[in-house]
Amino acid sequence: MTLLSIENLSKRFSSGGRDIAALKDVSLTIADGKTLGLAGASGSGKSTLARILMRLIPPDAGTVRFEDEDWLTLSGSDLRRRRAKIQMVFQDVLGAFNPRATVASVLDDPLRIHAIVPKAERPKEIAALLDRVGLPASYVARSIREVSGGQRQRIAIARAIATRPSLIVFDEAVSALDVSIRGKILELLVELQEERGIAYLFVSHDLAVLRAVSHRIAVMDAGRLVESGPAEQMIENPQSQAARALIAAVPRLVIEPTRDSAHDV
Ligand SMILES: Nc1ncnc2c1ncn2[C@@H]1O[C@H](COP(=O)(O)OP(=O)(O)O)[C@@H](O)[C@H]1O
Ligand SMILES: [Mg+2]
Which SMART domains match (predicted)? Predict the structure, then answer.
């Protein structure tokens, strides 16, 4: 079943007297419980698409249907109620959180704002969320700046799943991490998806990362979606120059298994 469907999305920015077409007529769909990898070089429009989905900026044209609703026209209490259903994890978690905030407050906020569990049950829920992302319950008392980059990404993932979303948007969420930590986080994300049926839009310039998590991959180039298909097929038989350039940037890509071949989905 289709969870999200984007049609003919366009967005221009003007800055310093220049007019930039960040998105040109982009259409794509994401299936329930599946991962769409969104690939593309820096500046190709990936984050603009993610920000439009999160309702951080409006598009100039186009529509988004999410769970059979017109997502971009939802407003007021309807939007507040539905917002919990799409969560986002950024690359720069320090920038997204107040560095003095405690882990407890970072996880308590979404539970309270979206009334996920009654107040008395929130501490237990926070402990369960930490446990699920592989962190000890004692972390509740730490401040965000006291934990490592990989641990901060785990807390960001815990916060994202706290509201029981049906879609999580990851924008370069593992790009700043060391390769060994990155691999562990990608494994956690695959497990969480299989356990909870959450769909992912996984934005990355790195096809090795996308290959580990994606069922399908779409490729952006200068604001246009130039190619999309099953992950394995896209990597083995790229159709666009943009896809070939991304593949060439990862020398070991072809000998590592894709998610579908590794997990037999
Ligand atoms: N707020 C903005 N003002 C002006 N230009 C922007 C803004 N946001 C993005 N852009 C431009 O839009 C294009 C796409 O950017 P972005 O979506 O961030 O690409 P990506 O995430 O693929 O690197 C780039 O040329 C970028 O400079
Ligand atoms: Mg970006």
Answer: AAA (SM00382)
Q: Which atom of ligand 1 lies at the shortest distance from residue 171's CA? A: 21
Ligand nearest to the CA of 221: 1
Q: What burial letters (b/e) apply to 99-128, b meaning 16+ CB within 10 Å?
A: eeebbbbbbbebbeebeebeeeebbebbbe
Q: Which CATH class is domain 2-85+165-263?
A: alpha beta
pLDDT at 265: 41
Question: Using CA positions, which residue lies closest to atom 2 of ligand 1?
Answer: 13
Q: Closest Cα to residue 95, out of 144, 58, 133?
A: 144
Low pLDDT (below 50) residues in the chain? 263-265
Pairing of strands 61-66, 69-70: antiparallel
